[in-house]
Amino acid sequence: MTENCDGFLFFLGNSENDKQLIINPKKISKIVKYINENKILCITVNDAYFDKIENLDFLKEIPNVEEISILQNNLNLKPIENLKSLKSLSFSETTEKLNLNKFHNLEILGCDYRKVENLKECKNLKSVSLHFYNKENLVEFENFDNLEILFLVQTSIKNFNGIEKLKNINKIELHNSPKLESLNGLPRNSEKLRTLFIYNAKNLIDYGKLDTLKNLKKLQLVSGGEIENLEIFEKMNNLEYLQLGMNIKNGDKIELMNKINKK
Predict the structure, then answer these.
(1) Which domain of life is it from (predicted)?
(2) Are the beta carbons of 148 and 126 closer than 8 angstroms?
């Protein structure tokens, strides 16, 4: 949803305060002035609304912007380095890798992992959404003490080693994890981990670590490896939502899901 304000187009998010100024390439000078005079903190580059922008050089004139999303492909993102106060960054395709070592205030990141370098320097991240994460484990995140949400799509991880000591993580979601073999490394006895969703992990057959997730409320395991029985799920007393999409050798998963989801 969008709205016009003062002659500029804004994209509206899920809340009243969640709106981004959409950059119109034909009004760059006016937009820069408007952003600075009105202390606009959130902007988006989206060629679904206006013509494609040639470059992001105008960013050096609006250094106080805290949030930017770029939904136009094949731009050079280096000018983003001018945004010293940046807290939220998301982008799709880019012409070259973006070095993240200057974004020490970054709290939210969404991108193709192959298009960034020095992710480990962003230790203040609270929410990470990455496509094509090609590491075998999550050791790169071991010092991300503020991390709350981890969302990975098309990942090569075999386990969760690296995040076992993260105390603030509350949601982990994986989509298309064909190499995932075990749940080793999940934060044991975590007080805050409430949600775990794993989709398309055919090689995942070791579910033993689930019984250490004492405070888990929501669990989805879809298109995973076969499991012998439902015993481990029956022991998860705090579950309020359960979705199982794998073969269970012994047991009625439908009955168990109905029982838990009716709580």
Answers:
(1) Bacteria
(2) yes
